[in-house]
# Entry
Amino acid sequence: MRRKVRRALTGVLRVPGDKSISHRALLLAALASSPSRIENLNTGADVASTASCLRTLGTQIERSGASASVTPRPWGEPSEILDCGNSGTTMRLLMGPLAGLQGLSILTGDETLKRRPMLRVVAPLREMGAVIDGRRFGELAPLAIRGGELTPVSKELPVASAQVKSALLLAGMHARGTTSVSEPGPSRDHTERMTAALGASIRTSGLEVAIHGPWQPEGFEMEVPGDPSSAAYLLVAALITPGSELSIEGLGLNPTRIGAFEVLVSMGAQLHWEQTATVLGEPVGVVTASHSDLVGVEVGGVDLIPRLIDEIPILAIAAAFARGTTTFTGVGELKVKESDRLEALAAGLRCVGIGAHASDETLTVVGGSITPGEVDSLGDHRIALAFAVAGSLAPDRVRIQRWSAVETSFPEFTALLDQARAGR
Ligand code: S3P
# Structure
């Protein structure tokens, strides 16, 4: 059989806007006192879910591809159920402002989202005064929120989570006084950076952040930085493909998002990044990856794992191409993402001939050679994208079930990979 020879990845690319920042930009624009204009919004289904919920709440959003004009209107009690689709960020972040909205809101999502834990957001919002119910006493959606006057709280989160932290900060915008949140590790701090850049009285001290309410932003203009989580797939594809040298510019380089870049460097990757600008408090710059020989490493620690929580699937693929064993520890949160990512990764890697084992908090990957196999993405975009990179050197070998999951965050993946192969 004639084997297709895959071409090196070269040239300079841009990736679509950051998903986390896009959700926050739409939310803050919908809560603002005047219109906003957002460019380079993430074009995936999750951010579309946020836009659609905000429209149901009365916000006017005109979207043309990656551009959006947002005209805020005072949020009214929604007459329709708010459908968050597959998007945990939509559901958890929206709950913050809805807790401060007079009236009843009902939130639901797809089958996956309805299995994800919500009590971590529900419980502190109840303490602030919202009345919230849902299946299993509020652990699972559908959720019903009766919002109203909120009282500020000080919360210590047991698990680092930007979604929970952001929901409380967004609720804190509606409470009179100081709402503070501390967490055991540094989760992404986009909400803090954006609200501070828009003039909120918000202070970060170590792992604690406090916002003083009530506060309402004015409308703003922004270009969302490229998504480092999306970039990571292309960068790892370049690292494992001989002859590659690929740059991605206009990329978000927030330190709470690029823990994976640091791990790749510790694996021997020739990966360099440099900040060139700042957008609403977010560092933006260029990153370059060249083909490298990778070695297995130990990845763990509460200071690191939250900063690469979404990149463990692609790091597991980098580990499959590395010499030796890579162990990820303290990664139990992956069991409650869009799928049980620890099991999905271990099972998928074994399907393509790589030794892998998952336990409650750990994933071990033994570097080797990919053999032909079929992997179930479980409808999880990050599992599908990671295994597409595993198969990118020999695409006839790795078949991915439920590939359409990539629409969630990165519909442009295949086109950008082809563009990099063409060296443009
Ligand atoms: C996100 C936070 C993370 C991450 C998710 C996006 C956000 O979730 O996994 O993809 O935009 O705040 P957790 O906060 O649950 O860790």
About this structure: Residues 19-31 form the longest helix (13 residues). The domain at 10-16+226-421 is CATH 3.65.10.10 (UDP-n-acetylglucosamine1-carboxyvinyl-transferase; Chain). The chain has two domains: 10-16+226-421, 19-212.
